[in-house]
């Protein structure tokens, strides 16, 4: 039961949710584009070699309503509210903040689910879902 719950939560994070939005940045066709993260929301030094201090970053980049110039591939954002609503706006840090405490625990969950899927495949089972928990064996 716990593995089934873990799988359902992982699938929810990856886009099997009412918004069909992946909360893992860079995964799937739809994911947050305005992550609350300084390095992601400010243009790279290679693209603009002018000095960008804290004030310039805030005044020129933080409040922009366009997607971040740098994608934080693999980061997991805060996610939806209790009504499954999500506002993709970098000033909405509660929902769009990319933190290690969101992402790090999921590494273990994804690793375990991947291992289960690989084991099922080795035993001749066909995974019933993307993360391979429910398997249909020969």
Automatic annotation (TrEMBL):
Keywords: Carbohydrate metabolism, Cellulose degradation, Glycosidase, Hydrolase, Polysaccharide degradation. One of its GO terms (biological process) is cellulose catabolic process. It catalyses: Endohydrolysis of (1->4)-beta-D-glucosidic linkages in cellulose, lichenin and cereal beta-D-glucans. Residues 3-109 form the Glycoside hydrolase family domain. Gene3D superfamilies: 1.50.10.10. Its EC number is 3.2.1.4. The keyword Hydrolase applies. This is Endoglucanase. It comes from Aegilops tauschii subsp. strangulata.
């Amino acid at each position: 039961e716990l593995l089934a719950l873990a799988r359902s939560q992982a699938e929810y994070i990856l886009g099997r949710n009412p918004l069909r939005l992946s909360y893992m940045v860079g995964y799937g066709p739809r994911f947050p584009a305005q992550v609350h993260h300084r390095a992601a929301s400010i243009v790279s030094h290679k693209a603009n070699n002018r000095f960008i201090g804290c004030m310039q970053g805030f005044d020129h980049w933080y409040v922009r309503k366009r997607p971040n110039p740098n994608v934080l591939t693999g980061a997991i954002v805060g996610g939806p509210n209790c009504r499954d609503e999500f506002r993709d706006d970098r000033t909405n840090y509660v929902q769009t903040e990319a933190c290690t405490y969101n992402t790090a625990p999921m590494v273990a969950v994804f690793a375990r689910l991947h291992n289960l899927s690989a084991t099922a495949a080795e035993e001749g089972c066909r995974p019933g879902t993307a993360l391979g928990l429910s398997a249909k064996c020969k």
